[in-house]
Amino acid sequence: MLLTSGGFLGKSNKLYKFPIKEVKFFNSLLELRERKGFVVISYKLSEETLGVKVKASSFPPIVLVEVGEPVEVEIGPKPFKLSLQGFSLNKEVYIERIRRIKEEIEKGTVYQLNLSTRMDFKLEGSPLDLFLKFFERQPTPYAFSLDLRDFYILSGSMELFLEKKGGLIKSKPIKGTAESEEVLQNSQKDKAENLMILDMMRNDLSRVAKVGSVKVEELFKVEKYATLCQMHSTVVAQTDKDLEEILLNTFPPASVTGAPKKKAVELIDDLEPHPRDYYCGCAGFVWNEDFTLCVLIRTAFGIGQDLSYYAGSGIVYDSDEEKEWEETLSKAKAFWSM
């Protein structure tokens, strides 16, 4: 079953159910040519776009779901229990990794890097009910639940990676997280980090854009959600390229890797003991030449009772280690009541 929030359809944050006609699995972005449906693309595809080896498990790199017409639904969650089993990087190790990143920044290896931890859980109940509670606690425009029986993916993403309508392409990278709008608006650190990622996205889009068409529409805009506030900027361009060429030049998303991107992905794989798999990949609908893809943040996936949720933070030279850990935990509040 596929449930998505209305943001994928240009509608309000209500839930829509799509009948599944067929599910296909692919290994390369080139296999998406002229495909239509709901697609999930693993972070593993960084190997194809950047030529960088990354950890991966047995989850298929690309899932394509051919769907029928959506129906708006209102479903209440049934009781379930979610029990934390542990972190791939606990607080002590996460802080140690931040210090290592700062050393690499001092050397000039990277300027910014996104570091994540994996939270492993046992679920007593249905993944659907977990998703419904997740969405109830924090409705987001690009939330979805995809249950394929063999495995399932749940996401509460609020970040637009790429949207193409006709010849116009748009991206809204998020950098900056806090409990209040005022804190974000007054944070020079968050603004500097946001600007760094925006510049990366401008550079990525320039590879597929018509000359002179890349423009910044919004800068440092803060959106308020139920458990936190996020800062994003918006960049647009004109393009005549297709989905595969655009993804080959922009994937993985800049906001969840770092700068420069290739070196950041190499360092992430060294620092993180877990494979990211679908986390930090992208997902959404492809309709003929147009598409809407979110960044797979606030995302969990699993098999049966075993599932993992991922969260991270962007590290720069003046990052406060304790605050970065607190920010990471804040991104799990809507998913799991700590």
From TrEMBL:
Q: Which InterPro entries match?
A: ADC_synthase, Anth_synth_I-like, Chorismate_C
One family from Pfam that matches here is Chorismate_bind
Q: Biological process (GO) annotations?
A: L-tryptophan biosynthetic process
Q: Which GO terms describe its molecular function?
A: 4-amino-4-deoxychorismate synthase activity
Ranges for domain Chorismate-utilising enzyme C-terminal:
91-331
The record's section on PANTHER family has:
AMINOBENZOATE/ANTHRANILATE SYNTHASE, AMINODEOXYCHORISMATE SYNTHASE COMPONENT 1
Q: What is this protein called?
A: Chloride transporter
Organism of derivation: Thermocrinis ruber
